């Protein structure tokens, strides 16, 4: 009974409230018109406060190509002179790493034709943060060499036209002894902040000042203080992975853009940032997503053969079509 009376009351009040709102709106409009007719300035409508929008990271695909001579860095000055020096340097380092197993030399010292399609990640200010070569082709000395990026068993790597791996070298650990004191976890009680937070890497036990080494070849994309990480080094690797090394007492003599080789000392164990004592915080990220270093880190060589893999054949065909859009001569622009 009480519920029905409440419903009846609401049914009666709802249209009445709507009528009152419309009446007030009409009165407001009439008042505004009256003020306008009398020459009285109408009050300005309320202005909402400005909202700050965070600029997004932009990822796009670029195509370059043409005839050039010299190492890949010099070749890119010829075929991609409109790119920033920093972006050309990133691409050149990736090409040196990718093509060395098939060319057995740095670049094209006697000249040749280069074509490639690559994915570029740009910061909100327009500068290039990272690049990843998707497919590339080098015509050198009468031979044609083609490489493709392929995720095989959740481990991206580069393969030649027949599906042979060009990444035969396994990754190395950043420390000589990998003793985990705190594992990768979606929620961990933070010993300093005293609340549950994701732990996006693993903590490795080591004494203060222990050398920390690059797990694989790549380029430095961060070297210095970074919030709770303290002193951090981040390395982007050509196969789509990135590694982070945190709480360092000091960073080695590298800067953003520096090329590092597997085993190079990049810093020293410390306790900077949010750390209770000296240790190494080690992260592995795949295409920007943190993953458990102990599960997915490529500590074994990539499979040597994917030529009979159906997924590889399909991906190769897709990337070959993408590569076909790259120009053959400087200034031609991509094909569509």
Question: What's this model, at a glance?
Answer:
This protein has helices spanning about 1-40, 70-80, 85-105, 295, 310-325; strands at about 60-70, 110-120, 130-140, 145-150, 155-160, 180, 185-190, 195-200, 200-205, 210-215, 220-225, 230-235, 240-250, 260, 265-270, 280-285, 290. It is α+β, with helices and mostly antiparallel strands and about 325 residues long.
Task: Please tell me about this protein's structure.
This protein is an alpha+beta fold and 336 residues long. It has 2 domains: 58-168 and 301-323, Nuclear Transport Factor 2, Chain: A, CATH 3.10.450.350; 180-296, Distorted Sandwich (Glucose Permease (Domain IIA)). The chain has helices spanning 2-38, 72-79, 85-103, 293-296, 310-323, and strands spanning 58-70, 108-122, 128-140, 143-152, 155-160, 180-182, 185-189, 196-199, 202-205, 211-213, 218-225, 231-236, 241-251, 259-260, 265-269, 279-286, 289-291. A hairpin with a 4-residue loop joins strand 12 and strand 13 (241-251). The longest helix is centred in the N-terminal third of the chain and has 37 residues, at 2-38. It is elongated.
Could you list some keywords that capture this structure?
10-stranded antiparallel β-sheet; 5-stranded antiparallel β-sheet; alpha+beta; 24% helix; 17 strands; 5 helices; 336 residues; Glucose Permease (Domain IIA); Nuclear Transport Factor 2, Chain: A
The Cα radius of gyration reads 29 Å
Estimated share of beta-strand residues? 35-45%
Helix content: 10-25%
What is the CATH C level class of the largest domain, in words?
A: Alpha Beta
Shape verdict: elongated
């Amino acid at each position: 009974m009480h519920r029905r009376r409440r419903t009846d009351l609401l049914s009666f009040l709802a249209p009445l409230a709507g009528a009152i709102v419309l009446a007030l709106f009409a009165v407001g409009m009439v008042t505004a018109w009256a003020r306008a007719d009398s020459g009285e300035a109408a009050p300005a409508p309320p202005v909402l406060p400005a909202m700050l929008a965070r600029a997004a990271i932009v990822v796009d695909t670029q195509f370059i190509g043409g005839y050039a001579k010299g190492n890949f860095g010099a070749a890119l000055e010829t075929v991609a002179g409109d790119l920033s020096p920093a972006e050309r340097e990133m691409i050149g380092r990736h090409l040196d790493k990718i093509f060395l197993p098939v060319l057995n030399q740095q670049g094209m010292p006697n000249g040749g034709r280069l074509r490639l399609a690559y994915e570029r990640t740009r910061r909100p200010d327009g500068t290039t943060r990272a690049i990843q070569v998707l497919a590339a082709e080098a015509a050198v000395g009468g031979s044609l060499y083609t490489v493709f990026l392929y995720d095989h068993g959740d481990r991206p790597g580069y393969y030649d036209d027949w599906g042979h791996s060009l990444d035969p070298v396994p990754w190395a650990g950043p420390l000589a002894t990998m003793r985990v004191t705190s594992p990768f976890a979606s929620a961990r009680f933070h010993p300093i902040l005293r609340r549950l937070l994701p732990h996006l890497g693993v903590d490795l036990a080591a004494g203060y000042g222990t050398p920390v080494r690059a797990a694989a070849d790549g380029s430095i994309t961060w070297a210095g203080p970074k919030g709770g990480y303290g002193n951090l080094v981040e390395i982007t690797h050509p196969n789509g992975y990135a590694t982070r090394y945190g709480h360092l007492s000091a960073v080695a003599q590298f800067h953003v853009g520096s090329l590092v080789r597997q085993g190079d000392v990049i810093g020293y164990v410390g306790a900077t940032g949010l750390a209770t004592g000296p240790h190494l915080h080690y992260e592995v990220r795949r295409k920007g997503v943190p993953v458990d270093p102990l599960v997915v880190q490529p500590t074994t060589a990539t499979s040597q053969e994917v030529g009979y893999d159906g997924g590889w054949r399909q991906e190769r065909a897709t990337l070959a079509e993408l590569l076909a859009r790259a120009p053959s001569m400087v200034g031609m622009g991509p094909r569509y």
